[in-house]
What we know:
Elements: H1 14-21, H2 30-41, E1 50-54, H3 61-69, E2 78-82, H4 89-93, E3 98-101, E4 119-122, E5 126-129, E6 137-140, H5 145-148, E7 154-155, H6 162-181
Parallel strand pairs: 1-2, 1-3, 3-4, 4-7
Antiparallel strand pairs: 5-6
Helix pairs in contact: 2-6
This protein binds nicotinamide-adenine-dinucleotide.
Nicotinamide-adenine-dinucleotide binds next to α6.
Amino acid sequence: MAIDPDKDVDGFHPSNFGKMALEMDTFIPATPFGIIEILKRYQIETKGKHVVVIGRSHIVGKPMSILMSRKAYPGNATVTLAHSHTKNLAAISKQADIIIIALGIPNFLKADMVKEGAVIIDVGITRVPSEDSPKGYKILGDVDFDQVAPKSSYITPVPGGVGPMTIAMLLKNTLLARQRSLG
Ligand code: NAD
């Protein structure tokens, strides 16, 4: 609440989040904004598709579910928002045309939870100790990439997928804030 909504480039302020939900012009949170941009750039059809968002955080899952159900492209999807109390997640995720997963549990999504040809957006970033890496750790996503990639039509890697897009869209929001301040 301490942030001026006009400078809220994360898009987390209640007034900006509310505007987003009402499909008004505003700052879209950087990670969902990056995912929107990925879907656009790869011309992924979303209209009428079943999108399963796994994870309902205020910064990723919840805004993503709102954006995918809005009357616009990318959007116009039928959205299921799954979370830690969801029962039979695999039965739900197997129906998804597009899965957007933001949990923070490495390699959570397995091949038997995904239908053939699904689009997979992996938001998860978890550092796990690794002796192979000079840094002493490696970054893992929420998707078991080696298992799931052969079944998917598109899949984002971790690292190198949603993460860099988040940074880019945060900068884009910063630029938009400057342009808006100039009227
Ligand atoms: P969070 O910890 O706030 O929320 C996790 C969500 O997962 C919760 O809504 C919870 O209900 C759900 N969940 C937990 N266990 C589950 C289960 N077994 N089945 C179904 N749902 C379950 O998470 P967050 O802030 O959205 O972050 C999630 C991950 O995404 C983290 O790894 C984080 O580092 C990463 N992240 C990446 C970026 C990026 O730029 N790529 C940005 C933000 C967050």
